[in-house]
Amino acid sequence: MFKPLVLKDFLDRAETVFADRTAVVDEPDQPAAALPDVSYRELGTLVRAQAARLDDLRIPPGGRVAMVTQNSARLLHSFFGVSAYGRVLVPINFRLTSAEVEYIVHHCDADAVWVDPSHRHLLDGLKVPHRFVLGEDDDLYRHGTDPQPWLDGREDAIATINYTSGTTARPKGVRLTHRSLWLNACVLALHAGVSDRDVYLHTLPMFHVNGWGMPYALTGLGGQHIILRQVNGAEILRRIERHGVTLLCAAPAVLNAILDAALDWPGPVPGYGRVRVIVAGAPPPSRTIARVLDELGWEFLQLYGLTETSPLTTLSRHRAEWDHLDSAGRARLLGRAGPPALGVQLAVDSSGEVLTSSNHTLADYLDDPGATSEALAGGWFHTGDVGYLDDDGYLVISDRRKDVIISGGENVSSIEVEDALVSHAAVREAAVIGIPDDKWGELVTAIVVADANAVSAGDLDAHCRQTLAGYKVPKRFEFEPELPRTATGKLQKYKLRQRFSQELDRQVT
Questions:
Q1: Beta strands in 360-509 (DSSP E)
Q2: What angle do CA 443, 430, 462 make, to 5 degrees?
Q3: Which of 36, 158, 325, 381 has the fewest Cβ atoms within 10 Å of its own Cβ atom?
Q4: Which helix (H) or strand (E) is 457 found in, with range?
Q5: Nearest-angstrom CA–CA distance, 306 and 433
Q6: φ, ψ dihedrals at 242, nearest 5°
């Protein structure tokens, strides 16, 4: 017997097994009126009402529905109200400019777009058949009407189009199938130990690779969704305390905000010994991992993946063999990207690029066969990251391929240098790039966010020389109040390179 793997499966199970359990607690502080807490039975009713609304708009299976909003219950509903009935959800980064949103909406040929009330200005330049503001006149739902069933429910049908974060150029539309997202959610839930006892806090923007699959996994297993609209370290701790949160996902920048807030938290840190935090977006420094273990008392998991891999590729988690280690020893091991997830194959080619093959891999890039062929050459997905597999079979990411610095003929990993810098107590964040230099080829350059007047370039030079070979030590230090990042916490090194290109009047690549 063959039964297609489709996303509706997750909601069907939740309605069957956990019908009367509270499913979703909406963000109370948002411009669109918060929706009341709903059970899984009520969530199913709302999802069907949303699908019926799309029927009214005559958007057929395969039609594209774009959403531009911060985390909200309405966006969570849409992962099922759109995709579970055969249409394609296009969740868009709400921090993009009007021009960037316009490019994505038109590139994916959206049939309809809903925006958060705080972004209503984005609708002005959009030429789409249907444009709406979330929460106004309940235009997302048609209550009391059953939707048309998705008769051609194929697992290879496209469920979502997720746009890459645009850290280098125009974002590409990554087409992900029901099968890829179904398996990604199940494998991630297995490795992270998700269960019906979990209370999940949506700190991760849901637009980012569909919240890494957690909207599906938590629903299918009957966990509770707590919606968070705005990332704030102290507020995250308050929600963890108020709702008994056990699980969250975060980029390193969000983790730093939580650690900072915990320093001023009165009494025991919420979730001590209970919370699991899954971190991805960039390899966090080992010092940060040790602080999570010691100061928060949370379990730390690291996920490595990309939009194109749905995103799960590897997951690093504490093992019984490490029980005897102190937090610093565990942090060093947890700092690796991790072993391949179930069903994932990893390889490293002769240039050091990490390759992956799995059921989670994209179908293709929308309207870009050239980029698709290049990314999937040889039957592997080419990640663009440089790394190696250590003796334990764990993947270690050395750098983005474009971020490897060649100084004096030697390869320098920017991640290794950043880790050394952040291990200094006064350094909050650091980015390392190479800039053209007549003597060295590329000059190892550090852009540092540090506590005011607490550290100098000389201090950092001496600190780095304790752990780094001399050729890896930055030869130039710049101090900045903050680093440019995407909405998901990814460092935008291209913006730093642009700044130095203008200064040097030479292209920094």
A1: 364-365, 381-389, 395-400, 405-407, 410-412, 427-437, 441-450, 476-479
A2: 65
A3: 36
A4: helix 457-464
A5: 22
A6: -70, -40
| Average confidence (pLDDT) per 10 residues, the chain, 509 residues | 97 98 96 94 98 97 98 98 98 88 96 96 92 89 94 96 72 96 98 98 96 98 98 97 97 89 95 96 85 97 96 98 97 96 97 95 97 97 93 88 74 85 93 83 90 90 89 92 78 83 59
Distance of CA 11 to the CA centre of its chain: 22
Report cis status (omega within 30 of 0) of the bond before 266: no
pLDDT cut 70: percent of the chain above it: 96
Structure tokens, 94: 């709400």
Greatest alpha-carbon span in the chain: 73
What pLDDT is stored for residue 497 in this prediction?
83
* pTM for this model (two decimals): 0.85
Angle between helices 40-56 and 8-17 (to 10 degrees): 140
How far is residue 164 CA from its own chain's centroid? 11
CATH (one of 3.20.20.120, 3.40.50.12780, 3.60.150.10, 3.30.1360.70) for 1-17+33-182: 3.40.50.12780
Please answer whether residues 315 and 280 qualify as being in contact, where contact means their C-beta atoms are separated by less than 8 angstroms: no
| Sequence-separated (6 or more) residues with CB below 8 Å from residue 410 | 471, 472
| pLDDT number for residue 340 | 98
Query: E-assigned strands of 42-115?
Result: 64-68, 88-92, 112-115
Distance, in Å, from the CA atom of 240 to the CA atom of 243, rounded to the nearest integer, reads: 6
The CA distances from residue 287 to 100, 178, 327, 328, in Å, are: 36, 38, 10, 8
Whole-number Å distance between alpha carbons of 296 and 156: 42
Beta strands in 134-246 (DSSP E): 158-163, 173-177, 199-202, 224-227
Residue 261's SS3 state is: helix
pLDDT of amino acid 168 = 47
- Enter the tokens of residue 23: 């499913």
| Architecture in CATH for domain 345-399 | Roll (2.30)
**Which helix or strand (DSSP H or E) is residue 259 part of?**
helix 252-263
Mean per-residue pLDDT over the chain, rounded:
92
Domain 404-504: give its CATH superfamily. Answer: ANL, C-terminal domain (3.30.300.30)
The domain segmentation of the chain, as residue ranges, is: 1-17+33-182, 345-399, 404-504
216 close to 5: Cβ distance less than 8 angstroms: no
pLDDT digits (tens, 9 = 90+) for 159-184: 999 998 654 457 899 999 999 999 99
- Classify burial at 238, counting beta carbons within 10 Å of its beta carbon; exposed 0-12, middle 13-18, buried 19 or more: middle
